[in-house]
Design a protein that fits this description.
Two copies of one chain form a homodimer. By secondary structure, chain A is α+β, with helices and mostly antiparallel strands. Chain A has 14 helices and twelve strands. Chain A is globular. The complex binds adenosine-5'-triphosphate (ATP) (2 copies) and magnesium ion (2 copies). Chains A, B: Belongs to the methylthioribose kinase family.
Amino acid sequence: MTTHSSPYSTLDLEGVRTFLTSLPAIAARLGGTPDEWRVWEVSDGNLNMVFVAEGPEGGVCLKQALPHVRVDPAWKMPLDRTFFEAAYLRAVFPHVPDLTTECLHFDPEQFILIVPSLSGHTVMRTAMMAGHYHPAVAAQVGDFVARSTFATSLLAEPFERVMDRRICFARNQTLTRITVDLVLTDPYHDHPRNHWADPQLTPIVAALRTSPAVQARIDSLRLRFLCTPQALLHGDLHTGSIMTTGTDTRIIDGEFATYGPIGFDAGLFIGNLILNLFATPDRAGQAVHLDMIQTFWTSFKTRFLALWQEREWAEDRSTLYYATTDKSTQNFEKSLFIQNVFQDIAGFCAAEIIRRSIGYAHVADFSVLTDQSTRTTRQKAALLFAKDCLEQKKPLKSLADFLELLYLHMSAL
Amino acid sequence: MTTHSSPYSTLDLEGVRTFLTSLPAIAARLGGTPDEWRVWEVSDGNLNMVFVAEGPEGGVCLKQALPHVRVDPAWKMPLDRTFFEAAYLRAVFPHVPDLTTECLHFDPEQFILIVPSLSGHTVMRTAMMAGHYHPAVAAQVGDFVARSTFATSLLAEPFERVMDRRICFARNQTLTRITVDLVLTDPYHDHPRNHWADPQLTPIVAALRTSPAVQARIDSLRLRFLCTPQALLHGDLHTGSIMTTGTDTRIIDGEFATYGPIGFDAGLFIGNLILNLFATPDRAGQAVHLDMIQTFWTSFKTRFLALWQEREWAEDRSTLYYATTDKSTQNFEKSLFIQNVFQDIAGFCAAEIIRRSIGYAHVADFSVLTDQSTRTTRQKAALLFAKDCLEQKKPLKSLADFLELLYLHMSAL
Ligand SMILES: Nc1ncnc2c1ncn2[C@@H]1O[C@H](COP(=O)(O)OP(=O)(O)OP(=O)(O)O)[C@@H](O)[C@H]1O
Ligand SMILES: Nc1ncnc2c1ncn2[C@@H]1O[C@H](COP(=O)(O)OP(=O)(O)OP(=O)(O)O)[C@@H](O)[C@H]1O
Ligand SMILES: [Mg+2]
Ligand SMILES: [Mg+2]
């Protein structure tokens, strides 16, 4: 394999072709000769340059970090995020080969990551905004979260391996800082990065910022995010980080990877389902969302507990948790563990809904609603649901409690 | 400053003198000429070689790691533990300069750490075994735990600095493995390293190993130890890691340093106080122990909350926790935090009592009881107290609950 040691430079379309040509294994995967390859840009996120190249034999996707935020060149940013995305794929791919892409190549000087192309797949958010719901995807994402988090947790491995991986991802501080600030701090304070177009949201924003219960809960969630390294998280598992054909589903864009509470990934996913639910006008569509939330949770829980059960035969006793006690104690302790994950989900889900509505980076989902007053009603309802989640005196411990609260706020639609 | 780059070799008394001679700053601190220095060995722990050198002007203590456990040469062990002890001192000394020793020199090839000599101080366990109790020491240790943990926690600093320190100490895996195995796993299973002389303890050991509640709680504590990096811990804060004159108190031997739950250090300290309490025949002595536990806890809590209060003026909002909410919410959340620390204390305290009684490394405290049957009664009572702690359906949330349980088991004496 050729190695590059030229200084970093941002590639354009021709640069991409040249770069791919220099990598024999990648060139072979594409097939034919470089002039037969079609190369095009697909960047649509905030941060990076993304290209797809297709040749007669196959396709790859090339992602390169920029020294700044793609959509805001004034916001400077180190390049190493592509390293962490590659490291994430290397850590989780063996456990979820059918649900994410393999890291085919990583260039540590150009900060380029190459994975197989998913050009037949659609971004889940885009599909949902077009009214195409794929309930099976929710089960697959639940499976992904269960397998990727379980495999990287203390429940699966001796602590030394977990700590080695924590050491690696604890250096992903630039993107962790973005999560800490943009998701878990700024929306709750007056900050120039916050924005919302609709003045009718302003009173809710004010209420969020003056509610002691909201403030306390968001501080607890931030502390939990930074101080509960249960498993390697994807870190940005919204519906824009999922590509699907409806049957084949792949999680992409793990550059925010960090050790944290298992409920973080799941909370972001459910939060984005709920944002789309509130942006969906018809009751039938909403019913599919509710079904997807339920399916996701069942899939996650079932797989996670099944993987845990399989561990009973491990040799290193210190890696066994709740394995040797009697069945009823074992079930009780494992349920408590899962219940704690659910509490985190409810909290991070609410934080995601809020930051995607009044923070720096909004979701596009509501733009399908062309009627301003409908949009207002729905955005308000989503925000009020999230606020209510955070204000619960007793944390929401089960999906049933959570859905009850959701129904309550859906009745305002 | 001279640097050494000779390969590692274990120093003898003359080697120590030569080594100290080669370090101008240390030689100056000792004063006079090397032949005027008195050098003697003070190793009394399990792991390392420890020497004190005194010259006309002052004294130093030199600690060198061996490639094995000092008291068990067949148990091989990497040398890097002295690095972590030096790193621990560098991290916490600025916050507790009056309660520990400064790292004067660390040699990364010889794995030698040099700190000021405490030759006028006595090891706290030794003092207590001789019937010399210094209640003021408990307040000082509480202050040490509060200041060292607070300063290295997310409550005191931006998460980036905490993560950088976590990265460093997550490499202290050899000694963390010892804690995981010897403190939090082996005593609860049949393992060749466990031992106890008194057959009357055997039924209690059997009861510990068959109690589902004990098994579940110890697994939860192990998970919490490995998955709650709240602060930089000393990691081995027993009464043998404290040297005091009765007024001046210094914490030594931080080689087990790792990020973990704040209640771990405090739990080990209280556990060792309680072991000595049960080994103390007279009620008056026991009353002093109870007073020390109370004093320790009040001192810890008061200082920790005071440090937290001072943070209210920090500029980076994401580093503020429960600071901007109304006073009653703030007090509620902070009390909850402290209560969680107490729950950990109760658990780790119990684990320490158990492993110091039936695990690999026992405490000497009970050896002062020359009457076998008295010793048996008292060791049994200590073990049963610990078992009861671990078996509580509702975790012990306050010192009052904890002391109530302790009184109950003291009444068996
Ligand atoms: N493997 C792939 N195959 C085909 N297209 C892809 C692939 N990976 C990503 N894309 C396309 O590129 C877009 C941007 O990718 P990605 O989300 O990884 O970039 P990003 O800059 O990190 O975005 P964000 O701002 O969300 O962090 C995706 O929305 C998708 O349309
Ligand atoms: N700074 C010091 N000044 C004087 N004596 C000291 C000093 N530090 C340690 N000692 C003495 O050396 C002994 C061993 O020190 P220390 O506990 O650090 O060694 P260790 O081998 O790490 O022990 P352990 O088995 O507890 O880990 C202490 O019990 C004390 O008597
Ligand atoms: Mg991205
Ligand atoms: Mg030691």
